[in-house]
Amino acid sequence: MTDGLTLLLAALGVALVLEGFLPMMAPTRWRRLFEQVMRLNDGQIRFFGMASVVFGLLIFWWAV
Asked: H or E segment at 39?
């Protein structure tokens, strides 16, 4: 396996672990948080998505 693919798979694994902590440890709280997200309008969701992409790209740029 190439180093790039190994790094990509490792990053994906870490992301999945982090994403799984809240539903695993506090499913009721996760459900309430998800219900609040469902009440956001499209512009708010797009803003959070854009902020996540920019932050992720900055981390990627810094790491590479």
From this structure: none
The mean pLDDT of the chain is: 91
Token pair listed for 16 = 């999945």
Which tokens belong to 41? 């309008």
Against a cut of 0.85, is the pTM above it?
A: no
CA distances 4 to 10, 12, 45, 57, 63, Å, are 10, 12, 31, 16, 13
| Structural domain boundaries in the chain | 3-63
Percentages (nearest 5) of helix, strand, coil residues in the chain:
90, 0, 10
d(CA 61, CA 12): 17
